[in-house]
Amino acid sequence: MKLKSLVIFVLVLTIAYSGYWYYLAYYAESYLSDRLDELESSGAELEYKSFKVSGFPYRLILELKDAEITLVNDLVRFEVTSPRMEIFVQPWNFSHLIASADISKMRIILNRTGYSRFSVETGPIRASLRKTSDGGTRLSFEGTSAAFARERGLANPPFDYVSVHLRIHGNDTAIANAENRLFAPEIADISFMARREVSGFESDSLLLSALEFQITIRGHQMPEPQADSFASWRDGGGTFEVNRVMLAWASDALIGTGSLALDETLRPLGALNLQTSNVALLANFLSHIGLIDGDAAQALVMPAGQETGPSGDIPINLAMMIQNGRIMISGVSLGIIESIINDR
């Protein structure tokens, strides 16, 4: 009798779950359409040519063909395209979405200038969007064979691995940070990493083998992409804490930390402490990518009174200043930097 009751219970549970799954699958496109309407109100769009639902019984898989994702605001425009994209959802947990694509391409365009700064083409990618227990959001992206290129030249060979992680802290964490710290609380963390294997014949080249940065955004509210919002965030003590920035070549690396804010015209303002054991390599790289000319490279390598530039195993500290719209490393100008947003 107990076995019969157990069988009936399992059968009812299976039928109920199957009905629930097919109910979700039937309304999946309607659900997606509603989410797209919400995205459009914030400047994001998702378009696709065909839509299919599969994955029974463990998950929902939303397969999109020829997907195009566009995010537009007053600061920047992102365009992501992929011939095939899949979105995975657990039927019992809609707070965690996972997306994957075999091949994708992303272009980033600054709205004020109207031209593409750079593009990224990747092999298989995987992204995760999750709501955290404190009401915040965590977004992660991982890809392979990522090639970065600028439309004004300089294309680095593909990186073997690239990752981007963004965490926006929820209200509970923000309140705790505000109570326990004298300065503006942490509201978001951003990290980026790209790496590639370097073969023997590339060991002396200027090609980057790794690129990495970790930034914490502090403030009492997350700024929106409008000038007034960034000004309010700045006036409330908002800062960008650069926990780590690294450019690595086969034979050396440049590592830095520092803090940035915004000046009265919303241009970055602050200082970073950079450390490298081969200033000559850094100068050659900056010249190679067009940030400085030959005279400036020589000035960086050979400070006044030195016949040879510092190079070797002893770390050299360099001061990087960003002030009045100019970027300087040890007195050598790398060029001007404009306001991060200008919609006034």
Give an overview in words.
This protein is of the alpha+beta class and 344 residues long. The protein has one domain. It is 22% helix and 48% strand. The protein contains six helices and 19 strands. It has a six-stranded antiparallel beta barrel with strand order 4-5-8-9-7-6. α5 runs antiparallel to α6. The longest helix has 25 residues. It is elongated.
Attribute tags:
single chain; 344 residues; alpha+beta; 6-stranded antiparallel beta barrel; 19 strands; elongated
Helix content: 10-25%
Strand-and-helix sequence, N→C? HHEEEEEEEEEEEHEEHEEEHHEEE
* Low-confidence blocks of residues: 112-116, 304-309
Largest sheet: 6 strands, antiparallel, barrel
Number of strands: 19
Q: Choose one word for the global shape.
A: elongated
What's the domain count?
A: 1
Radius of gyration over alpha carbons?
25 Å
End-to-end Cα distance: 77 Å
Mean pLDDT: 77
Number of continuous helical runs: 6
Strand content: over 45%
The structural class is alpha+beta
What strand order characterises the main sheet? 4-5-8-9-7-6
